[in-house]
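Dear colleague,

Thank you for sharing your sequence with our group. We've completed the structure prediction you requested, and as agreed, I am returning the results in plain text so they can be pasted directly into your records. Please verify that the sequence below matches your submission; if there's any discrepancy, let me know and we will rerun it promptly.
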Amino acid sequence: MRSPLAKTLLAILVTMLTACSSPRVPGPDHLAPVTPRMASLAPALTKMLFDLGLGGQVVGVSRYCGLPEGEQRPVLGDALTVSTEAVLATQPDILLIQSDPAKYAPLQQLAPDLSIEHFSIETLADISKALRRLGTLAGQPERGEQHAVALETGLDALRSQTIGLDRPKVLFVMGSEKPGSAGRGSFVHELIELAGGQNAAGDLEGWPTLSLEYVLAAQPDVLVCWSSPQDAERDRQRWSSLEDLPAAQLGRIHVVTEPSWTLPTPLLLGHAQQLEAWFHPEADHG
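Please find the predicted structure tokens below.
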């Protein structure tokens, strides 16, 4: 018979052997954080990722994506032409796009584990959805939620400020020669309405090209022209020279050059606030 001491030593030995042979399941504190590598072929999505503080997970961008000062990333192509070799070289886990997903079928065949995520961002509500989705895809849902709520709160506050104010007719154009504009269903149309104006191109859909005859017939009280920096003064002079245009008569031609005016990102909140100040200079903007 074994002595009590021998039994105790045997029990200890069995326990040690069991611990050594059993697989160890790490607890939550030992799990590595999930940080998928993300490539973006959409300027708006790239901007949002960096604004969310997720730029460290961005491994490639399109040639049209703007990056914060000091940041550089491999260029993978654009919405029309994508370098499959460049994409594969960056080894992304997720590819973010806004163009037709069918164009990426050959890439998907070469990289079946690559998750290709398509975004459709046409309205202000779509921006909030995109923020939340990007946060979730990046493994940081709380960041997406925080930024989405901040955007929605700011837009709601601006909307409440313009209740009951007169609504001038506003035309948003891009350039002065065969200018593009923003009709119903676009985020710019929503910005104009939100800021207390009425879209003079609201009878059109999407992003139409306007004739000079249409612009004059629309009779906008305010004209906002997005222009490239090198063409800004030329476009200002062209629109201001139209004597039959109410906006020119009133001296209410505003030329903007920041690319963010035509990108669906949270920066539009600041632009909406600027529009409200232009539409209603008599109001209290504090």
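Summary note from our side: The chain has a mean pLDDT of 89.

Kind regards,
the structure core
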